[in-house]
Write the structure tokens for this entry.
Amino acid sequence: MAKPVTVFTCTACGANHRKWSGRCDACGEWNSITEEAPLSQGPGRGLGAQRGRVIPLGALSASEPPPPRTPSGIDELDRVLGGGLVPGSAILVGGDPGIGKSTLLLQAAAAFARAGASAVYISGEEAGAQLRLRAQRLDLADAPVRLGTETALRDILTTLDAERPDVAVIDSIQTLWSDTVEAAPGSVGQVRAAAHELVTFAKRSGVAVILVGHVTKDGQIAGPRVVEHMVDTVLYFEGERGHQFRILRAVKNRFGPSGEIGVFEMTGGGLAEVANPSALFLSERGQPSPGSAVFAGIEGTRPVLTEIQALVAPTTLASPRRTVVGLDSGRVSTILAVLEARCAVPFAGLDVFLNVAGGMRVAEPAADLAIAAALLSAREDHALPAESVFFGEISLSGALRPVAQAENRLKEARKLGFSHAIVPAGQKADGSGDMRLDRVSDLTGFVGETFGAG
Ligand code: TYD
Ligand code: MG
């Protein structure tokens, strides 16, 4: 039998290489390639000699009841999960260090336990005393959660197999260590092996397993991408350090809609649910000021209004600054280019700063019009009317394209006291009595109408 070949794997993107090098050709990351023990030789060669069993094949039409769900009672979490926890599912929760993952999951475990499910919380990061202190601070000490502190995967699996709880939280996947893999905890091989074992265990036993995953500096779950493919649900816990808002976002969900968000506020007593995020995100808005535009957005199934803030200032730099927080910077560059090329509004020689108030992240193309409005308002030093909201996608030609769920956006805006919306011309939506609609077909028209000649 041929000697197994050692492989070198990039810890950033998971690409395999035949030899070590300082930089990964696949993703361009430096110092990310590590040596890995070879995978054991599976079948693949000589299939004829060692045949597998015949697997049963079923019809597509067989009727399946919807999966049973255990709600936690924390509505913001249940919505993101698609209505509650599905037995035997594997969930990965990623987020920056210190954002509140452990707090969220301790609160979730306690909520499940109080709702009558059996819950086990295993931490490889904190000592038991630390966890109990936190539970006291969060007023959860009386919840029937069983606590363990361990990093050895084999012991964790044996314990979970004996206990068979309804839900098990593992904090975190990067601290686990399997004795079948010769690599340090946190390495690609270890993370992959631990995730695989735990996901297989979840499917086999019916225990819902929630894994905490650390995130690299560019915002992806550390370790191989393949872990995200293995699990049923991937949730990201996001927020800006300086803000108290936290957003739990489903980026993948085999048991529910993806893109759904839950909004929380970090308080002295842990994470509190925010039932009306629009009111919260707009709460800091004072008098109408130049550079501020309200975007009527949709996150998952829920309308959320956010304030887009822009600042435009003369620069002495040869290449002006474009600082964007909470929005896609590529999208912002495109909008700036459309304003320059189609509407003759130059931004050369001007620094541009853009962000979303409250630390929210907005990825919808429907935000284009609000971004353009904020930029123009800042550049012209002209405040937009306080009663207006904006939505619409901008094409490269400068035309405004209709977006989905306009009625929902308008309904939320009306609920928060807005009475005027600027929407794309082709948008199917009704402006009822207390909501006036202005339809614009392209950005040039919008510039002309709102800011005079531009
Ligand atoms: P933690 O859950 O430990 O974050 P992670 O597991 O994602 O690393 O959260 C730590 C932060 O949360 C810490 O900076 C303190 C803050 N925090 C509160 O503000 N209030 C609380 O009640 C708790 C428990 C933590
Ligand atoms: Mg933690």
Summary: Residues 101-102, 125, 171 surround magnesium ion (ligand 2) (CB under 6 Å).
